[in-house]
Amino acid sequence: MVNGDGAHERTEEAESKQDGNSETDGGEESNEQEVIVIQDTGFTVKIQAPGTEPFDLQVSPQEMVQEIHQVLMDREDTCHRTCFSLQLDGNVLDNFAELKSIEGLQEGSLLKVVEEPYTVREARIHVRHIRDLLKSLDPSDAYNGVDCNSLSFLSIFTDGDLGDSGKRKKKGNELEQIDCTPPEHILPGSKDRPLVPLQPHNKDWKPMQCLKVLTMSGWNPPPGNRKMHGDLMYLYMVTVEERHVSITASTRGFYLNQSTTYTFNPKPSNPSFLSHSLVELLSQISPAFKKNFTALQKRRVQRHPFERIATPFQVYSWTAPQVDHAMDCVRAEDAYTSRLGYEEHIPGQTRDWNEELQTTRELPRKNLPERLLRERAIFKVHSDFAAAATRGAMAVIDGNVMAINPGEETRMQMFIWNNIFFSLGFDVRDHYRELGGDAAAHAAPTNDLNGVRAYGAVDVEGLYTLGTVVVDYRGYRVTAQSIIPGILEREQEQSVIYGSIDFGKTVVSHSKYLELLEKTSRPLKVQSHNVLNEKNETVELCSSVECKGIIGNDGRHYILDLLRTFPPDLNFLPVDGEELPLESRRQGFPRQHRHRLACLRQELIEAFVEHRYLLFMKMAALQLMQQKANKDAKNDVPAITETAETPSESNNGECKSPLEGKELEESIPGLAQAKELAETLVAEDGSCIDPKSREVVLNACKAVGSISNTSFDIRFNPDIFSPGVRFPDDSADDVQKQKQLLKDAAFFLVSCQIPSLVSDTPHGSNLKSYMCVFMTRLKTGVELSALSAAVSHFLNCFLSSFPDSVAHLPPDELVSRRKSRKRRNRVPGGGDNTAWASLTPNELWKNIASEAKSYYHFTIECESVDQVVEKYGLQKTTLLREISVKTGIQILIKEYNFDSRHKPAFTEEDILNIFPVVKHVNPKASDAFHFFQSGQAKVQQGFLKEGCELINEALNLFNNVYGAMHVEICACLRLLARLNYIMGDHPEALSNQQKAVLMSERVLGIEHPNTIQEYMHLSLYCFANGQLSTALKLLYRARYLMLLVSGENHPEMALLDSNIGLVLHGVMEYDLSLRFLENALTINTKYHGSRSLKVALSHHLVARVYESKAEFRSALQHEKEGYTIYKNQMGEAHEKTRESSEYLKYLTQQAVALQRTMNEIYKNGSNASITPLKFTAPSMASVLEQLNIINGIIFIPLSQKDLENLKAEVQRRQQLQELGKSEEPTEDRPLELEDKIPID
């Protein structure tokens, strides 16, 4: 285990039995065995569909028959069929059977596709599927944020698929054909930040019209006597040739009938063209349909699968073009039949979400196949639940759901829709009065969600949490939860058997809950403790008091209200009579916050415990050394000197410098051995150790605040400092220790974590966060009819330089005759609904400044947005993006003139939509993640081959659990591509990285910071593959996105510009190249200091371009700078210093030669004898070498044989993996798998 966290991590590993391969190789072996079982070799079957040639299909024994159905509904030649069965030797296969369970199904079997009679359900599914095929290239679903569609633009920059294009081009004359000029707006120093290029025009999207109208007919449903003729429903169509037809869907298929708009005549027309598929029918009556539909399907299947697979969670785009609103029967039907979730696929209408969520948790998990099945089920239900909860929350806020307590005031109302319970984020019944009222009620749901996430991750058998989703929409916060069976029938007082419903005044406990929560106590670092109840009796708890335990009617033990799972952050919680350390007080802590629910993040707790562990080891080791020294001095005094006690005062959380530990080790001889000894002491649990050593451990435990005296174990009591909680007198010591521990953790955050974070990030970003608070304030209480006007008015006040932004109250499109009595009760939290219209830029700015002061304790010393933009170097486009993304606004994509003083930048027509912002739990694929981590570890130790195998394995398992689309799969593909590249397989690297880019665009967003990085990696592999123009296009795209998202002033920009500069140098565009490289030099110097090795490398890159231009003086000047840095940082003897000095000599010789030639020319005029000078265009190899260096790629030589074996292995895996299907994006930053090996 790295990081010395070993001792207390090991027990967890053992408990969770999922140590796939963390410690021993033995574990790995057995796991390999299991994995192989899962991937039973695939086999091929023949499929014969009516009217097509039989074709081969590769299947795997684990697949269900249903999955073959899906494949057929997607294939170009069979996609128009939905209602069929598969038959083997005349026997119909069961849709839900696994292939391996079917008798007689083997390599080469022939499956027949047999058309089945329709039912109403099947006919609807067929129409829906045909509509999906007709819309398959239409991006409007992605813009509207429905059905898990999202945008991707990569193919525009790579001209289709990357794999083949590398081979087509001739290498010889490629240089002349490349147009390398970047668009004006991405050149270094350009102030222009256009929005339109964010969504380049995709020629594939121009609509190929197959039909003008496809809709349900007004003659539905068929009357009784027609039902008995087999009529299921009627459709109405208008073909491209303007032919109006009425169609009957019957049990036997589709045919034309004789009805018109106003007369009903269900008789078949002549000819009736009875066809089993709507497509076949339409192809017969409309030549344009036939032609366009065929072309459309061709184009559809040519797209990369990752461009069209649904994502697991909805991703919303904050910009969209004006999309034509076309007639669409399926969309209209969906909107009105309120299909809750997806009942048409599930018998028995609405889903019992709670039952589904809990049952999946109860699935067995003894071996890998079981765990995969369980995790896939958990993940699927979660993503469905998140989608349903989001729809419900929007319906609630839009006023389309009836409250379960309609008599109460609007903000107190609660709702149930589709078996999900919804409540609004207001302080109802003064529940949070002592904690900060509405502000606390707004913060509680996200804290609760973090608690649900944490308990879910520990995954204790028998302990259940509720499905929880928090949705922010139109300025309201809605919490959606699954419903505990029976809770609605009882009063809360009777059902709570553990915890407190009044923040600690009355408290109850329960032995079963204590037993279950005890299992979470160690991983979540929660200390079990005693509190007093209203009768002054001692009650034992193992969580915070508000955490309630309720046994549902299903007998399961649920815990809810987990908002204080993690200890409070004392920096924002002033407590009478308690003082923080002096250093914190100097920085102005503790600060008054608007609510008392500020708590530390789980990551911080982990980091703090880790820090303490290192401290503990160090102390034990130092004492052992002292004992040893004393023994050597033949003087056996027990070594409890003062040093043992001091750290808790001096070092209670500070870290002097990141090197502190290492320096210590180097300064004291023998410390390393002592440390090892200390580890053995700790590991053996303090039983069979001699008293002296036990004393050492005891002292070290005391010093770091461990709760045990024999081993390192830090846990927090979450109830310390909770108002209303009282502790028994006999635990006063404990409470005192816990208070100290909380102060130390708060101090650790301020003195250590934040400084180390700040040193890595540029300033100027602290402003963005205030803007959003307003949106919420503004939107709450705006009538729906004025929403776009209100949002555009707010954006004008905020971003436009136009001084007196006047709101356009909607010129009531429909003024009603009688001024109706104000229907007060409509909007939750209603009130004066036009208050927003009087907001002025000045007033908004005052609000923002006071908000910044009260919430962030940050003083903005500016009078207007223009001053802020000037002072902090912000960009209005970036602010617009931040605000839109955080509040869910979608705006029209066009160029906005923010700086005009004559007219406002936004009109209400520019606001296209408001989306929900959704937070939910992301269930993890634990086994896949273990494989992934071991793979990373192997790669870092230099075992690329083993690393590559493990990562491939992880990829298979991720696909198994998440489906084809997921943030973690994206990270996996990126690392795989990097390994392919390092091992010399460029085409494979390209293919994997292309998938990573597409996936990142789809699940994170087209301008997400991760996506920008994926673009950079892809351009490197393109360059290595000889696709220079593509490499440049990708880099230009990355730079454009980077400018839009964060502006030029960002440390990553230096890397991007070095990449662009190098590629331009390679294609001999020297002047352009210099612009980018010199900009990179400036940025590196700014962020890393002029003595950094990054700066030295930048100087060298610039010098090389000057050399190519034969400007030797400038080249020498830059190389000298670089040489000086290397010499000072690395010493004379280091190879970098020597390389630099060689290069200096070479440049000097060239300069002298040039000077000689020039003198010769001056002296002898035109008949001088000139020795030809060597001007070298850089070789591609040398450019690539520099690209690798700046991107932190280090090559490890492999023999040809190794490479061959590896390729074969990878191909085998790839084939197995092609059988994967699709699901979801995470919201917390996914495992940032930065596999870069740092250069600095």
Could you describe the 3D structure shown?
One of its GO terms (molecular function) is mRNA binding. Keywords: Cytoplasm, Repeat, RNA-binding, TPR repeat. Residues 1-32, 1216-1240 are annotated as: Disordered. It comes from Sander lucioperca (Pike-perch). By secondary structure, this protein is α+β, with helices and mostly antiparallel strands. The protein is 47% helix and 9% strand. Helix 20 (602-632) runs antiparallel to helix 24. The protein contains 43 helices and 23 strands. The strands form six sheets. Strands 2-1-5-3-4 form a five-stranded mixed sheet, with helices on one face. Strands 11-12-15-14-23 form a five-stranded antiparallel sheet, with helices on both faces. A four-stranded antiparallel sheet has the order 6-7-8-9, with helices on one face.
